[in-house]
Amino acid sequence: MRLKDAGLAGLALALLMGTAAVAQDAAAPAAPTFDYPPVTAESLINPAPGDWPMYRRTYDGHGYSPLNQITTENVANLVPAWSFSTGVIEGHESPPIVANGVMFITTPENHVFALNAKTGDLYWKYTAEIAENTNPSHPTNRGVALLDDKVFYAAHDATLVALDAKTGKEVWSKEVAPVGEAYYMTLAPLVADGKVMVGVSGGEYGIRGFVAAFDAATGEEAWRTFTVPAPDEPGGDTWPAGAYEHGAGSTWVSGQYDPEAKLVYWGVGNAGPWMGDQRPGDNLYTASVIAMDVASGEIKGHFQYHPNDSFDWDEVSAPILVDDLQKDGTTYKGLVHAARDGVLWALERTAEGPINFKWGEKYVYGDAITAIDPTTGKVTYDESKKPSTGVSKTFCPSLHGGKDWPPAAYNPDTKLVYIPVNNNQCSELTGAEVEYEAGQPYIGFDSISIFVKEGAEYVGSVQAWDISKGEMAWEYKFDKSANWGPILTTAGGLVFSGGSADRMFRALDAKTGDLLWQQKLNSGVIGVPTSFEVDGKQYIAVQAGWGIDSVFNQSTVDQFFGINSNVPQGGVVWVFELKDTPATAAAR
Amino acid sequence: MTEINKSRSSSPRETGDFRINRRGLFSAIAGLGVTVAIGPAEAQDDPSKLPPQVGDLLVFDRETKVPLTPADIDPAVTKTPVGYAMDPASGVVRTGNKNKIAIIKVDPAKVGSESQPKMAEGVLAYSAICTHAGCEVKTFKPETGVMLCPCHGSEFDGLNAGTVKTAPAKHRLAALGLKVEDGKLVVAEAFDADIGAQG
Questions:
Q1: Residues linked to residue A429 through DSSP beta bridges, in sequence order
Q2: Please, what's the b/e burial string for B18-48 (b: 16 or more CB within 10 A of its CB; e: otherwise)?
């Protein structure tokens, strides 16, 4: 019997037997198997140089790769090694996470892919089936977390899922928050101390924000810490009565972790509703960083970047942990945060938890904040620029801020912090009364806009700052483009980032900001770039796929410069390697 | 408590594709004050939660409940007029975000063929809730009949069935059919598409 007939006969038999499953098994090839040594807790504290096992590679949030095969000398020889179409159109923000030569990426529409990091071959694809009435805002995802033989993923409908790393099959799933109240999740989970931690989105829908931790093995909830305290909890007196129930304080970007102090640092978003005059008070812990005990979730310290937030300046990016910072002749362990509010903050972290102000310096044009107290770090507002109910106010930086969700990076060799910046943008906002209705927007405004300030030369840039000196070292400005590009920095002395409407993915000299290499990709690059090593070879990986907030923001830049960016959309995983020289090719 | 079905209808299987099924209503976590979205069974008990019904009048003010006439709609506004439907018999106003109605007045000569039958003396009515992420389409452009959502810039064509003019919204605004009876605006046809955030 010919092969073709055998196949048809098999199918016919299966149909007669009425078992579609049999036909499926007979027709589908076996999924490729691969070795996957369990990811240990120790390896998360000290990852192998060739691995990138979490959002920013390491708990300190540096986004730094110790690999140095690709250097300032040879990066001009970087070429594509392989690419992979995700089949999804919207904005791709997640990093290629790599452990032991296996790459995990996530995309919009609730997919997780496992790929061979060296060849780009697909191992498995998982798709979460999400609730019908899920909040459709910000339809993207920022990546997975790893521990043991599991991959942890936050599905959009606020369900935390643990997958078997080798098969993509669900091991456990936990509903983290009620979809009916418009909670959703987009972040990469954080795994530490045997727990998987997640925050939530929904700050425009009257949620009460929190960070929750679940046992990595079983999914059992370990603790839940609200970012908006009840009246009888510490900080509860910074809200009028009853306001805390819908005070927002979302937590939609992954936290960082200090394994020595066993403290988790999480960034907290805007307050709800948007107008601060509708909830007088500082409104802790909105627009703050909080330090939580990893075992219990108890808040041990905090710093509020700006009180009574009325600007939608979510301070959800957790600060980067940088040791050996200098100020006034002393050394301190620091937290560095390039805030939405336009200030670059340097804070001191302590082992007991409290967080102290060290200095703050504006890194973009801003007129709403007029002063920063040199001792406490408390900001002073120009009230004529602070949005309020029934009045139109204009303020800078814009709602999206000097830096939005795209992560900054720190290079311990150059001792510079690299920030994806949007400068010279402002907003107009007219506040309004609003009634709470479960699952519906709870914002309160009559008009809102983002615009580029008159006379602006540029908007998007990459800035490099020396934190100990408190000075900007260099700035690489984009031409007629915003910057929505997360940053990677490496021991090879390089900074990798995209973020611009021209679809370029760039390598800059980490010391000088000189452009050393660039490649035009299929779409604008808003994915987090990572670097990994397989079989002794270093690779640079990033997802290209423009979308989500970058689209609206770029439209304001387009309008200002009188251009039409029209960035094409579509997700592709790009992996780059050094092109063979005759010597290396001969050696293989 | 009303059970909310959390499973999507089936979609094509892919090789190596594994799905998870969600069952039951989230209720396990205490202290969150879970508010369940009201399902159809409960809405029948509460007429204020029903969508606009044929025969309803339109009002701007839920307290004074003054029924609107075509003359009450200002064609030159730049802020989208938003009103509600009201049961004329009981005086119950249909409230909630999903019951917000954008009531606009345009030049009848400019109105497209799909919207002509829905129009009453130049007045058209649409759901005021942007189909992208649920914000109100707060801004109106009188020259073009366009309603703009300030949250992410979506624009809808009020002259042509509320169709999407500018992304990121993908779905048109649902339209009500209107007529004039005893000089007042009256709902002649219920909303003709889905309401609210659909991504």
A1: A393, A448
A2: bebebeebbeebeebebebbeeeeeeeeeeb
Residue B138: burial class (beta carbons within 10 Å; 0-12, 13-18, 19+): buried
Centre a 10 Å sphere on the Cβ of residue A29 and count the other Cβ atoms it contains: 7
Kind plus residue range of the DSSP H or E element containing A11 = helix A3-17
Q: Are A448 and A393 in contact (CB under 8 A)?
A: no
Q: What angle do CA A357, A361, A367 make, to 5 degrees?
A: 115
Using an 8 Å CB-CB cutoff, list chain A residues near B132. Answer: 136
Whether A198 and A155 have beta carbons less than 8 Å apart is answered as no
How large is the ipTM? Answer: 0.74
- d(CA A110, CA A153) in angstroms, rounded, equals 9
Rounded to 10 degrees, the C-alpha dihedral B34/B35/B36/B39 comes to 180
Residue A34: partners with Cβ closer than 8 Å, 6 or more residues away? A101, A102, A116, A123, A166
Q: Give tens-digit pLDDT for A453-486.
A: 999 999 999 999 999 999 999 999 999 999 999 9
pLDDT digits (tens, 9 = 90+) for B92-137: 999 999 999 999 999 999 999 999 999 999 999 999 999 998 999 9
Assess whether the previous peptide bond of A273 is cis (omega < 30° from 0). Answer: yes
Distance from CA of B78 to the nearest CA of A (A): 11
Distance CA A537, CA A161 (A): 32
Task: Count Cα neighbours of B45 within 13 Å in the Cβ-side half-sphere.
Answer: 4
Question: What stretches in chain A show pLDDT beneath 70?
Answer: 1-32, 583-585, 587-588
3-state helix, strand, coil in chain B (%, to 5): 10, 25, 65
What is the C-alpha separation between B62 and B55, in angstroms, rounded?
A: 17
Contact B197 A135 (CB under 8 A): yes
Residue A31 to residue B16, Cβ atoms within 8 A: yes
Beta bridge partners of B140: B147
Kindly give the pairing relationship between strand A379-381 and strand A369-372.
antiparallel
- Hey, are the CB atoms on A169 and B167 less than 8 Å from each other? no
CB-CB contact of A237 with A283 (8 Å): no
Give the whole-angstrom CA distance, residue B91 versus residue A104.
Answer: 57
Residue pLDDT, tens place only, A295-345? 999 999 999 999 999 999 999 999 999 999 999 999 999 999 999 999 999
Length of chain A counted residue by residue:
588
Average per-residue pLDDT for chain A = 94
Structure-token match 């649902």, residue found: B174
Residue B183 Cα, gap to closest chain A Cα (Å): 30
Rounded distance, CA A385 to CA A305, Å? 17
Q: Which residues of A are designated catalytic? A: 312
Among the listed residues A82, A32, A55, the one whose alpha carbon sits nearest the alpha carbon of residue A534: A82
Nearest residue of chain A to residue B97 (CA atoms): A440
CA distance A178 to chain B (A): 6
Contact state of A552 with B97 under an 8 Å Cβ cutoff: no
CB atoms within 10 A of CB A232: 7
Cα distances (angstroms) measured from residue A587 to each of A38, A71, A537, A582: 33, 20, 14, 9
